[in-house]
Amino acid sequence: MLFFIRHGQTDANLNRLNAGGEWDVPLNETGMAQARAFNETNREFIEQVDTVFVSPMTRAQQTAELILKGHSKPVEVVEGLREWHLGEWSGTKWDEVGDYFTDRLNPPGGETMAAFEKRTIDNLKYAAGQHAGRVLVVAHGGLWYVYAALAKHKKLLIDNCQSEEICRLKLNEVVL
């Protein structure tokens, strides 16, 4: 089984700012509390995790560390799990740019939507293929959205410190 957890809240999330892969913002107090709460309320789930793959970004690293506290799990940092590189949009208000996911917009000076989709799927497939047991991915809302949209998952958006299952079969059916 493959599970995905979005990092905890950051000040960028709170202030509705686009925090792309080039803006490495840490968790705020709420985000740290969310990750600690996940750890406390999901101990059995965490105990059953065999391995963890995490984005190199601070907010994902902090989330993984806090949700895994008290559990000894192998953790692999995967560069390809970094959030979408938003170029000139990074740091702007959400409302200024529009819905770049559903409108399939390419950020000026950033990573194209097609490149981000390919990177996301390739790296989720990598994580899924490294271990046959329970795999946990700790990453970003953008990566979740790409998987969910391409795999036709019922839930396109994921809240901070929320987890969802990724169906390996559906993931493997995604061809770019």
From TrEMBL:
Gene3D superfamilies: Phosphoglycerate mutase-like. One of its GO terms (molecular function) is fructose-2,6-bisphosphate 2-phosphatase activity. InterPro entries: His_Pase_superF_clade-1, His_PPase_superfam, Phosphoglycerate_Mutase. It holds the Pfam family His_Phos_1. Keywords: Hydrolase. Substrate binds at residues 6-13, 59. GO terms for cellular component: cytosol. One of its GO terms (biological process) is regulation of pentose-phosphate shunt. This is Phosphoglycerate mutase family protein. The active site is at residues 7, 83.
